[in-house]
Amino acid sequence: MAENKSKYDRQLSYICLLSYAVDTESIGQSKAKCVCAFLQELNDAVGAKFVEESPEALLETNPAFFSQFSLIIATQLAENVVLKLDRICRQQNVILVIARSYGLTGLVRISLKEHDVVESKPEHSREDLKLHKPWPELKRSVDDFDIDTEDSVIHKNIPYVVLLIKLAEEWRNMHDGMLPSTKEEQNQFRDLVRSKRRSSDEENYKEAWAASVSLWDPPGISSDLRNIIEDSSADVNSNSSDFWVLVAALKEFIANEGEGEAPLEGSIPDMTSLTEYYIILQKIYQEKAEADFLSFERRVRSILKNIGRDLDSIPSASIKSFCRNARKLRVLRYRSLEDEFSSPLTAELQRYLGDEDKRLWKYVRELDEDVSRLKTIGVGLLNDMGCVGANLSEDLISEMCRFGASELHCVAAFVGGIASQEVIKLITKQFIPISGTFIFNGIDHKSQQLAL
Fold first, then answer.
1. Residues 1, 51: Cα–Cα separation, whole Å
2. pTM
């Protein structure tokens, strides 16, 4: 959606050929019509339509128009228009992504009530191998290994999972059934692992030494997951979403079959091992994960029955995906734009305004009249928001005036790329989208997220 412009501005001029996938025959025609036609050629499996009417007019005459979409991207809209659009989108549970390019700056903002992520795919995630609490099948398999074998080939190819469980048992036998807890004990355990190593090429013992932290500091239930299962939305009823029904089942599983732990994922990392040993371990972990899934699924079906929903209303594939990713769930809740404007988080605003590195201060020109007027408006807005006494840099004000509301191709392309990336996250419910307002500073090539 574009800012309201005159009929002439909405038609293609020669300069527009530089930024749109159009040809010379399109000059003088509607931008929406031409761009729609050419964009469809990029993927003939995608349908596209255009409406030759400004967003402002649609909001006034036909607000129900916006309810037909699952996600709306709004660009270059005025504040009052965005506020009105946000209210409508929230009423209809439509995701709104706002993008703005202004001179050498830009922003991207997501607005919706709640976004639940099952496949968050964090960059850094510790494996949950249950080394501190091996279940009976894993324990029996580990007992079959002899880590003191004289066979050098076998000795340097025993998986580190086996080594740590064996050595943890040895430690417990000498310490009243307790695992290392103090820093001194942890170092002593690492020394125990190192003492079992016979040669410098035994990589499995290096892996065991590095992974030993999982014995006294297992991944367990993270603070994010704890907050989710203790959320009031986990008290489900017939109107609850599938996600919160699954969370309710997860809460029950953790309290019962899981014995304080989330369901096992079932995958194991690469490690130094003979192939046959690795396959044995892999099978044991997969079987445990499948058993956890079946227990979890029974709890899901039981909850669906209790709240009066169809027992098959949540597919097994969705339950399995949730079960495998239970430790990595994320719930994001976004403030409405109206709340953000009327009651911003003043501490965040003050911090940002006081950070010299984040200001746009270069390439200043004299624009005295505009600078003075904009500064008066800016200080007034900050006072209204509760940031009384906040200082606005003259250089920052001058830069914003110098931009003159221009939309530069390179900045617009960058901001559009960020917005499209966030849209993919929102639609697929994979990865974690931005949780605040993304600000891009094209002068210093810096960016930041603000929680306002």
1. 10
2. 0.82
